Write the structure tokens for this entry.
Amino acid sequence: MAATKIIDAPRNGHEMAPLNTRARGDGTHGVTIVLTAPQRNSVQSVDIPGNEPERAAWSGKMQFFLSIIGYSVGLGNIWRFPYLCQQNGGGAFLIPFMVMLILEGIPLFLIELGIGQRMRLGALGVWNTIHPWLGGIGISSCIVTLFVALYYNVIITWVFFYLFNSFRYPLPWSSCPLNGTGFELEECAKSSETTYFWYRTTLDAAPSMDEPGGLKWWIVLCLMLSWTIVFFIVMKGIQSSGKVVYFTSLFPYIVLTIFFIRGITLRGAGAGLMHMYTPKVEKLLEPTVWLDAATQVFYSFGLAFGSLIAFGSYNTPKNNCVRDVLLVSVCNAVTAIYASVVIFAILGFKATVNVDRCIASNTEILVKNKLLGLNDTQGYEQAMSLLNGTELTRLQLSECSLAHELDNAAEGTGLAFIVFTQAIVELPGAPFWAVLFFTMLLSLGLGSQIGILEGMLCTLFDIDIIKRVKKQHVTGVVCLFCFIVGFIFCTGAGEYWLKMFDSFAGTIGLVVVALMEMIAVIFIYGHERFTEDIFQMTGYRPGRYWQWTWRYIGPVIMVCILVSSVVFMVIRNPTYGAWNADLGMIEQKSYPNWVMGIALSMILAGVLPMPIVFLMRSFQCLKVDLDIHQGSIRRNETTASTKEMIDNDDDDEEDDENDFSGPALGGHVKTQSDFSDDDEEDKPMTMRMMMMRPTTTTKTSNVLNVPTSRKKNYKKDAYDV
């Protein structure tokens, strides 16, 4: 074979981290480069002669933008942000929210999207490429994403159940069912119609996690439907999911606009909006308000799941990712505020209706006790003011306060399935509005679930072994596994398990992963290299704002979120809200010890891969993860620094004796004994042996060895294979 000499070129800051380096006294490093045959892509791609198959790409800019919007704008914008605004100072909460958006959300968003676009790899491949010791970041991200995907699809399951029941008239949660004697069921009478339908009809809630009861067949069927739909959407990657995002991303805005037009015309809408957005500036002095804002920004963007890295890797190398980050960030914040206006306009209407109903009930009691004239509608306030606390209790009179009604707002499932459904019942043509509302929740949930699974599957396909299997088969196995594990959410304790997963599985692990991502890109890969990469891709060089937030402000905020999360988890005894059927209300219970053991295991499963991989590779214990390592660091598009070293003329058939495939393809790395006079049996070389052995240049092997002399710099030789 003829050797071609290659002139050393200046490093551009994006080269692959060397697998094996041994420091020399003169500052140079010995490098062993293993030539492996090109491997087929895991996703549908277009072959370009002379190059590796290109990575799958978006069909257009709009498809990418809508996919990011559908992933980032999720259920949290509907049922979490309005609650935080109300609890943390109303309109004043927008100040810490915007500050954290600028200092934390946007910088970390650009890191994930930019590094994915630059490397054109999933989460596992990106961190292995930056440095093999960082490979655990991708594994941790994949594990945490799996936990979140497990319970996130259960929310879609509940939405399906409510959506199917929305086609009934009257709505099944509009009235309490009757017992055999014609009276309302006691459990429903003590709570409310919507609360009873949620806890008894939908969940058939158990009294505690220790008594989960059996599987609820209607939930199991809806869960199977959810995972089936998700499978068909993501089974071909962005080739299939990219078409669905046109609906899942745009439809929620159409529904929100319809609800907005209807909501602001309702009686009491102004009171709801005033209650929500009236600024309470004194709240800004409380540290928890700023912590809530930082946490909301972090989770609303879907950071650290690996999904943004995957989405960025499907972009063209010259895509303006900085512009994309700014547009998506603004759209995310505006959507959260817009959804809050819609939610509280309708909740203001519900509160007004409840106050009117309360006043009518009190008036009837006052008239019955001859404390108010039959037609005296003006004397109600005066009559109530003359009664003391004892008389109010004796007469069973209720406090009819609009502020009190509005303060009873809920978050999460309580807002979507209890509070908002009660407001829908009061609207004319309630089934129509119920169908619209739950279809909107369905599209929001599916949009986020598509992104979550895409990030996890993209990470899996960075592994060489899985890369050889069809994407449809791998996706099917993942969905089937998640469906089977999801049975724990189909019992009477299903909601309790979901809240436990939400509190432990996707909190500390994600924050640690995000912090390590910042450290890896800015301090290991280098902020100067990353800045140059952004400039080469977009023509825009990040300035002081980006440098300060990447290097100082962002990591400090992430550390504060991490420390506060751990502290709150330790000092506050973790509890969950269990349904008490006898009282018709929620009561707080402590998690059983065995459940806390599971929660701790999930936290450790999401964090430990990072130190484990670091220790394995730093101490060169690489036998186990050799195939994963070599498969994950292979670039889908060869960089300028390595492209000229490897000739991809793979059309000619080679004899078995000239097989240069590496261990990841089933071959082996040849040793010096392979070329000795003795006919010894070939022995596979482990990565540890490759790192520890002194190297010499051998032109007939598939290993490019570097001279061992300490006085001479090495020369790169490339061989036609």
In short: The two ends are 8 Å apart (CA to CA). Residues 161 and 222 are 7 Å apart (CA to CA).
